[in-house]
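Run log // design_07
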C-alpha cells in the first residue's frame, strides 16, 4: 500500500506541471486503453496459476508456473510485433494519430507487465511477502523517480543554469516522459524478480496449458468487463463529447477519481493477499466461516477509510490537485463520495467472487462481470452527452452495486457462506449518511466532519458487541 501510495502521489505532480486539463485527460485516456489490452495480454493465467498450483497432488506448481510464463512469452512477442506493425492505425483509432510511437511503447509495457504479474503470483503463492514488497517498491520507485526527474527536476536544473539538461529534456514532451517512465519501470521489474524465472526449466506442458486456458479464459471476460466498469468511461468521454471537451472532461474526472484511490489502494492490497489465502483455505472445513469473518473485517475497514477520506476532503483535494482550474467545475468534488462507495462495493465483490473460483464456475463469474459491464455501457451511453462525467461516476456505482447483488445471490446458491449481511449493509448505510452529513453540514456545524469518525467507530463497536459478549460467555 505504501508503494502504491507513492505512485498515487504522482497526481499532484501531473496536475501541477501539465499545462492544460486536456493533457492530463490524454494521460487518463491512454492508460484506460492500456488497461483493456493488459487484461487480454495476461490471458487470465494469474488466477489459473493459483487454482492449479494449489492442487499439488495433481500438478507441480513449478510446472504450472513454467507453462503459463512460456505462453505469455510467446503472446508478449506477438503484442510487441503488432504494436510495431500497426502503430499508426492503432493510434488513429485511439484519437491521437500524431503519436504512433505510443502504441510501440505501450505494447512493450503490457508484455512486460503480463510476465511480471506471474512472477509476483509465484512470490504470493510461496508466501514471500518481503521479496514481493521489495520488487514492487523498486518498480514504483523507478517510475516515480523518472517522473520526478523529467517533470520537476529538469525544469529546476535548467532554471539553475545547468544547460546539459537540454540533451535529455524537451519541455514540449512532458506526456512522453510520463509514458517512458512507465516503460522503463516495467522493463526493470523483470530481472528484479530474479530466481523466480529458474522455474522455467520445467518447460511447457501443452495438455496442462489447454486446461489452464479452459479455466482462465472466462477470467479474461471477467477482466475485460471489469475494465469496462473501471476505465471505459474515460474513453467514452473522449469519444462521445464534442472535440476539445472529451479530453477536458476526462482530465477533470481522472483527477477527482484519484481522490477515491485511497479506497482503491486498500482494496488492491487486500486482493493481492486475499486471493492466495482464499485458495489455500478452501480445503478447510471452516473455510466458509473464515471467508465470512474476512468479509466483515474488510467492510469495517473500508467504512473507516470512507468516512476519513470524506472528512479530509476539504484539505486533501487541494493538496493533491494543485491547479485551481480543476476546481472550476464544481461537479468534480461532488463525484468523489460516489466513487469512494463504488470502489468499496468493488472490494466487496472481490470477496464474494471467491465462490466461482473455488467451485470452477468461472463462466458464472464472467456473466456477473458482463452484467456490470452492460450497466456501464448503457448508463454512460445514455447519460454522458447530457451529464458528462457525473453520469460516469453514478454509473460506476450502479454497475458495482449490481455485480455485488448478483454475485451474492449466485454465490449463496452454489457456495453458501454465512455472511453477516444485514449488519454489513447497515454499517455501509450508516457510513454513507455520515459522509453526506460531513459534506453538506461542514460549513454550518464546525468540525462535524471529524465527529463522524468516532461516530462510525462507535457503530462498529455496537455491531460487534453481541458477538464479543457471546465469545466471553463461551469462554
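design_07 sequence
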Amino acid at each position: 500500500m505504501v508503494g502504491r501510495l507513492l505512485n498515487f502521489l504522482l497526481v499532484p505532480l501531473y496536475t501541477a506541471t501539465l499545462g492544460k486539463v486536456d493533457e492530463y485527460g490524454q494521460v487518463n485516456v491512454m492508460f484506460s486503453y492500456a488497461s483493456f489490452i493488459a487484461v487480454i495480454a495476461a490471458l487470465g493465467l494469474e488466477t489459473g496459476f493459483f487454482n492449479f498450483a494449489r492442487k499439488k497432488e495433481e500438478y507441480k506448481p513449478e510446472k504450472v508456473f513454467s507453462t503459463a510464463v512460456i505462453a505469455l512469452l510467446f503472446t508478449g512477442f506477438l503484442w510487441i510485433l503488432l504494436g510495431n506493425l500497426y502503430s499508426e492505425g492503432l493510434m488513429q483509432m485511439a484519437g491521437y494519430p500524431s503519436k504512433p510511437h505510443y502504441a510501440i511503447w505501450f505494447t512493450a509495457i503490457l508484455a512486460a507487465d503480463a510476465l511480471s504479474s506471474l512472477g509476483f503470483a509465484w512470490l504470493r503463492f510461496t508466501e514471500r511477502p518481503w521479496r514481493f514488497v521489495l520488487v514492487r517498491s523498486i518498480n514504483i520507485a523507478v517510475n516515480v523517480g523518472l517522473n520526478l526527474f523529467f517533470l520537476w527536476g529538469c525544469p529546476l536544473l535548467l532554471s539553475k543554469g545547468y544547460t546539459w539538461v537540454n540533451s535529455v529534456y524537451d519541455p514540449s514532451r512532458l506526456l512522453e516522459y510520463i509514458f517512458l517512465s512507465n516503460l522503463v519501470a516495467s522493463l526493470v521489474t523483470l530481472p528484479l524478480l530474479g530466481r523466480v524465472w529458474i522455474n522455467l526449466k520445467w518447460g511447457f506442458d501443452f495438455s496442462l496449458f489447454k486446461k489452464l486456458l479452459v479455466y482462465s479464459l472466462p477470467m479474461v471476460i471477467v477482466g475485460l468487463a471489469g475494465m469496462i466498469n473501471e476505465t471505459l468511461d474515460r474513453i467514452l468521454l473522449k469519444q462521445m463529447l464534442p472535440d476539445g471537451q472529451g479530453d477536458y472532461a476526462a482530465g477533470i474526472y481522472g483527477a477527482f477519481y484519484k481522490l477515491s484511490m485511497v479506497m482503491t489502494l486498500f482494496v488492491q492490497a487486500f486482493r493481492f493477499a486475499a486471493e492466495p489465502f482464499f485458495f489455500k483455505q478452501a480445503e478447510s472445513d471452516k473455510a466458509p466461516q473464515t471467508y465470512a469473518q474476512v468479509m466483515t473485517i474488510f467492510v469495517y475497514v473500508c467504512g473507516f477509510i470512507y468516512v476519513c477520506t470524506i472528512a479530509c476532503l476539504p484539505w486533501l483535494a487541494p493538496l493533491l490537485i494543485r491547479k485551481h482550474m480543476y476546481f472550476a467545475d464544481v461537479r468534480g468534488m461532488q463525484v468523489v463520495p460516489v466513487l469512494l462507495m463504488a470502489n468499496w462495493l468493488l472490494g466487496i465483490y472481490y470477496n464474494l467472487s471467491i465462490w466461482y473460483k473455488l467451485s470452477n464456475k468461472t463462466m458464472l463469474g464472467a456473466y456477473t462481470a458482463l452484467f456490470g459491464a452492460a450497466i456501464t455501457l448503457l448508463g454512460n451511453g445514455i447519460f454522458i452527452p447530457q451529464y458528462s462525467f457525473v453520469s460516469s461516476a453514478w454509473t460506476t456505482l450502479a454497475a458495482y452495486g449490481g455485480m455485488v447483488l448478483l454475485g451474492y445471490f449466485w454465490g449463496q446458491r452454489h457456495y453458501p457462506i454465512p455472511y453477516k449481511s444485514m449488519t454489513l449493509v447497515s454499517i455501509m448505510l450508516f457510513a454513507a449518511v455520515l459522509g453526506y452529513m460531513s459534506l453538506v453540514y461542514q460549513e454550518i456545524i464546525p468540525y462535524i466532519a471529524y465527529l463522524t469518525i468516532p461516530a462510525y467507530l462507535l457503530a462498529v463497536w455496537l455491531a460487534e458487541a453481541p458477538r464479543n459478549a457471546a465469545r466471553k460467555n463461551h469462554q
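The radius of gyration is 23 Å.
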